Amino acid sequence: MDQNLTLQLLALKEEFEDYKEYTSKNIDSFFLCTMALIIFLMQCGFAFLEAGAVRSKNTTNIIFKNVLDSLFALVCYWTCGWGLAYGPGEGFLEHLFGQSEFFLVGTNDYTKFFFQYVFAATAATIVAGAVAERCEIVAYIVYCCSISAVVYPILTHWGWHESGWMAQGFWISDQEKTEYLDFAGSGVVHLCGGTISFIAAYIMGPRIGRFPDDSGEVSGEIKGHSVPFASLGGFILMFGFLAFNGGSTGSITAPGIGKIVSRAMVNTMLSGTMAAFTCLIVHYKMKGKLTLLFTINACLAGMVSAFAVHAGGGSWGLFAACLVSHKGICYAVSNAITGHGWQWLPVAQLFWQIVCAFAIITWSFATMVPVFLLLKKYGKLRVPAEIEIKGLDIYKHGEAAYPLHAYGHGWDEFEPIRTTKKISVLNPEISLEQLASAYDAMSHKKSVYHNPSGFEHPELHGVAKYKKQVPKPTQSGKENGAFNA
Amino acid sequence: MDQNLTLQLLALKEEFEDYKEYTSKNIDSFFLCTMALIIFLMQCGFAFLEAGAVRSKNTTNIIFKNVLDSLFALVCYWTCGWGLAYGPGEGFLEHLFGQSEFFLVGTNDYTKFFFQYVFAATAATIVAGAVAERCEIVAYIVYCCSISAVVYPILTHWGWHESGWMAQGFWISDQEKTEYLDFAGSGVVHLCGGTISFIAAYIMGPRIGRFPDDSGEVSGEIKGHSVPFASLGGFILMFGFLAFNGGSTGSITAPGIGKIVSRAMVNTMLSGTMAAFTCLIVHYKMKGKLTLLFTINACLAGMVSAFAVHAGGGSWGLFAACLVSHKGICYAVSNAITGHGWQWLPVAQLFWQIVCAFAIITWSFATMVPVFLLLKKYGKLRVPAEIEIKGLDIYKHGEAAYPLHAYGHGWDEFEPIRTTKKISVLNPEISLEQLASAYDAMSHKKSVYHNPSGFEHPELHGVAKYKKQVPKPTQSGKENGAFNA
Amino acid sequence: MDQNLTLQLLALKEEFEDYKEYTSKNIDSFFLCTMALIIFLMQCGFAFLEAGAVRSKNTTNIIFKNVLDSLFALVCYWTCGWGLAYGPGEGFLEHLFGQSEFFLVGTNDYTKFFFQYVFAATAATIVAGAVAERCEIVAYIVYCCSISAVVYPILTHWGWHESGWMAQGFWISDQEKTEYLDFAGSGVVHLCGGTISFIAAYIMGPRIGRFPDDSGEVSGEIKGHSVPFASLGGFILMFGFLAFNGGSTGSITAPGIGKIVSRAMVNTMLSGTMAAFTCLIVHYKMKGKLTLLFTINACLAGMVSAFAVHAGGGSWGLFAACLVSHKGICYAVSNAITGHGWQWLPVAQLFWQIVCAFAIITWSFATMVPVFLLLKKYGKLRVPAEIEIKGLDIYKHGEAAYPLHAYGHGWDEFEPIRTTKKISVLNPEISLEQLASAYDAMSHKKSVYHNPSGFEHPELHGVAKYKKQVPKPTQSGKENGAFNA
């Protein structure tokens, strides 16, 4: 009887262990896939934040780059990146990069792959904003692949893989050991992305018209074409960063981890809010305007990853961890003051964070500067000035973002409309067609507006040559009739 | 041996209890965080529903308000609101408001905080639509903070905290007790938000041009500038309301609760659908048109929270619960008729719902009317008429939603394009640049279109003064050439 | 003592079983509801993919159809579809369709209903893109209801219900049995939707201007009015398809299923990527342009459900399963070659897939061709040519997507703006108002731009009659002044 009971108990125990194991795997998969889905949507967020911030003539181009991004990052991370980051290795090199599981051969952990892939895609996509409106597509593909296949995966191996040298840290006594703190990818995602953005923008140079030239004209800020699109992107990115930071635990099944996830989300919102308010107030004091776009960008930066300030946001995240966290410098100092004795660990920790940040920046420079310089040397980095001035959409893609002849409608000749006073004939709206034909009449040319057939056909544009300068329509007047004359 | 077995059994039992406890906490955190993320995206939904419904000159402004909303609500709910709503208290006052955990000091339940915060942000954001295109930003900040710091949290304490007076209800017999039924925030979120919207809109007055004036002109409905944006907002809000209502259970781990969550989603969709069809058919019968925007708004109202009809949607939700639910009046009546005896509970329940709805409305009036009246007294409620007419975007934010000079491209001088018939020179598109220079030639002025440098610089606009009336371009003709003449 | 222990053990066992059961139900509900929410958002994705691809004059119309879609599909699936698909039945007919649980009477599984409903809505919405810009709303409602009430539910009964004839397959030996493989709805959702799209587009005919007419003019591709909107839709659909395919397991609680879900997502991304690259390269080789929209559509097709190629994408999914899966033909062949003996199962399997695909296509034709032909006979299939040319938005809905008078702002008379050189008076922007009044002056008519009151009032439009042809503004010149003359 006893025997029987013991067996039953053992069986139950085993069943329970079994249940715990497969259930926690399932729930973690569910958690990571859900968060990864939302993080994946950040590609859409970046696309629209950037699309709203460029001029309409480059809108298709910037969205194209963001779409390609997700796709190239997948191929590169699948073929090469995952293996370098998490493939088991051996020997000394194991501290530097992974050495197997390329093409996912031998991998079981698809969940982690999917989750890490969306992080890699984020790291690659960050740069697109810094080179918008002037980067050659070839350059874009090259740097995007470099990042997602090599640069970023090796950084994650250093920082996030248990055998990476940054993750291993060093022993300061028998019991105490520093470790690399990198919650939510402050370092390997945002500092890396930010550094590469800086390199790219520096080597490429600013957009034409961005800074004053010799003519003494005040240079304008180049306004984006759509505040709503930029805001849409901003909202989606907030949504995404909450998942990004919440999901960084990588698991939802360890005891007490639910609280950590939700606290991460609350802290993300709080620091985004503080950054947004700071920016808003400073800008208002200086310029007298309440700027929406700066506020959104500041908020995203505060959420540890602003578009414009990735490097800044990223490095602050790295150091904040060892300044204000529970094991941080601030606590050490306050402990020392209150007589609890001085601790060396927080100092060693801060030192280690500095070393790691330095390593991340150095690595990003060492790998990406040659890439961009080579691209520049072969003239593949930046589009010719004429194309930049006229816009990339039509020349590169054959797709205007808002083809003019797709607008307008024909309901401009209604029957008389009754008002309360009398009946009168009204043109309810100026149609673009009418404007177009009026323009045609003026200019004695036939605009293609009325002949969409010939317009924007990629095969016809292939033969188009662009002129050196943007033609300025004559403004002399007199000769040719009233309009274009 | 027995001893040993007993110990093992006890250990297993304990482990199991332990597992159950931390797992259910984790899964609930996961559930609430996921739902909260989706509900957070509703801020984006509201922003776009409203952005599409205003004119382009106020688009940046309305999005700005919706972004600020999420941020101010967080700060206010963090500093004050959460404590008033869920901070433990004592004595009689405990029935009225919470008394601790301000700044989240001493709180453990970050998950609940995050979830409740997104609800508070929703309650605050509802009002923005009612005061669009004319509300001063100061007024907006003041009322938004009032709602999320005080008005809404105290309501949730009444209705959702176990010691709140509404939640406690009263005993009608030894066994039977009324309780406040408020599934998915019909009362405390939507009735409150709707009431405050009404107060705000009433005190502020309608937009200029919204209703007929003395001149006898038919007043127009003021159309929004983008149906697609409004629809985008509507779709996101549907997505959000499904999560809002599904997530209202606050947990996913109690036995059988999964079914309740999914049934809530199904019912949400069904009632949204019924409301949308009703509105569609009535409008079609009356006006002969199938209106998209009314249909979307009706659908959202049916999902218990339409933008335009928050008060209506919210109060119906409150009463529907005690009319048609399983313990509701309808069942009581049918039971009485079929001879199962009359029950007083449903009647008492209905009475209690009416009392609570009355309390919510009274509380909203008592707190918010003084706020709005004070704002009005000090001239901080509504922007001056000139700014309202000319639009808030440029004056307040220095950011036009669609800066004209960010549009257009330069590809208007292609080489001849081949058609099947002949080769002819075509202007593939009327560029805005050409239109602009044509306009310049006409008007003998230089539009800044060609000189973006000076345009929309916030620091330059600071000195701009607006005129009293919108200048009407002269239409007399003759003198000045053909165009502007 | 023993007795006691045994009882305790039994109690624990029972509690554990109980816990397992209700927890797995809850977690599955959570999983399915979350995925269903994201899949529901695909309605928004389709709406915007299609809205971006039509001309602005039909934008409200296409969004309206997509909203209606979700609503009609719910009503139809609730009243009828669910019962036909999953209602228990008896006798031979059970293999053909379900026979109970109409109006959800007697159903307990709301989670499955909600999940299946979003699939049904997807099947119905696929067709909208194929008939855009010309379909009568009545026709749309009729076919949408037919699909979600009858055609699609019966297919799911065949393929996904355990007693459906396709799901049952046939025995090829005592141990081996074919089964219908339909991961993520390749067949019942995408092949069905694609077939009906083909039928609808064929019977309805192409849009006016889509293909060359007798006049010998090159016919244009009809460009959509907004690349960003189409891309937004594409991004949302990618997000949705990941959930669609990941969620197709229908559960997250069986041992090892988490891995299957994440692998499904990884594979979805990979095949989308491959399709996108193939399309991109082919198109670039042929036309010399890197097209964004084709790339997005190809990516979605690769994710087993492109808009334009539903039928193609769907049927490839059906066959791929038995070609390259672990039990597929390729493995059988390689086994035979390597001397492991020939297996008949993969061949039988492929045969069965072909039979099923044939059945799906036949069923779609048999049910939907009569529907569309009847609609055509009674003139309810396609709008009159005049309305098609002038656009559906204003005539059908009274809502222009971008009402012109909602644009523009009044800040065109700033005080002088300082430049570095001198102070000059500038018109910062050409306002639409000024363009409008210039146009008015030219044409000697008063455009309603200045009198929004009379514009787009649905009740006034009811009396409007459209003319036979789009009026061409005269271009002869001379007589009437310079502009309209």
TrEMBL record, chains A, B, C:
<dbReference type="GO" id="GO:0008519">
    <property type="term" value="F:ammonium channel activity"/>
</dbReference>
<keyword id="KW-0472">Membrane</keyword>
<dbReference type="GO" id="GO:0005886">
    <property type="term" value="C:plasma membrane"/>
</dbReference>
<keyword id="KW-0813">Transport</keyword>
<feature type="transmembrane region" description="Helical">
    <location>
        <begin position="113"/>
        <end position="131"/>
    </location>
</feature>
<keyword id="KW-0812">Transmembrane</keyword>
<feature type="transmembrane region" description="Helical">
    <location>
        <begin position="350"/>
        <end position="375"/>
    </location>
</feature>
<dbReference type="GO" id="GO:0097272">
    <property type="term" value="P:ammonium homeostasis"/>
</dbReference>
<feature type="transmembrane region" description="Helical">
    <location>
        <begin position="290"/>
        <end position="309"/>
    </location>
</feature>
<feature type="transmembrane region" description="Helical">
    <location>
        <begin position="138"/>
        <end position="160"/>
    </location>
</feature>
<feature type="transmembrane region" description="Helical">
    <location>
        <begin position="226"/>
        <end position="244"/>
    </location>
</feature>
<keyword id="KW-0924">Ammonia transport</keyword>
<dbReference type="InterPro" id="IPR018047">
    <property type="entry name" value="Ammonium_transpt_CS"/>
</dbReference>
<dbReference type="Pfam" id="PF00909">
    <property type="entry name" value="Ammonium_transp"/>
</dbReference>
<feature type="transmembrane region" description="Helical">
    <location>
        <begin position="264"/>
        <end position="283"/>
    </location>
</feature>
<keyword id="KW-1133">Transmembrane helix</keyword>
<comment type="similarity">
    <text>Belongs to the ammonia transporter channel (TC 1.A.11.2) family.</text>
</comment>
<feature type="transmembrane region" description="Helical">
    <location>
        <begin position="29"/>
        <end position="49"/>
    </location>
</feature>
<protein>
    <submittedName>
        <fullName>Ammonium transporter AmtB-like domain-containing protein</fullName>
    </submittedName>
</protein>
<feature type="transmembrane region" description="Helical">
    <location>
        <begin position="180"/>
        <end position="205"/>
    </location>
</feature>
<feature type="transmembrane region" description="Helical">
    <location>
        <begin position="70"/>
        <end position="87"/>
    </location>
</feature>
<dbReference type="InterPro" id="IPR024041">
    <property type="entry name" value="NH4_transpt_AmtB-like_dom"/>
</dbReference>
<dbReference type="InterPro" id="IPR029020">
    <property type="entry name" value="Ammonium/urea_transptr"/>
</dbReference>
<feature type="domain" description="Ammonium transporter AmtB-like">
    <location>
        <begin position="30"/>
        <end position="305"/>
    </location>
</feature>
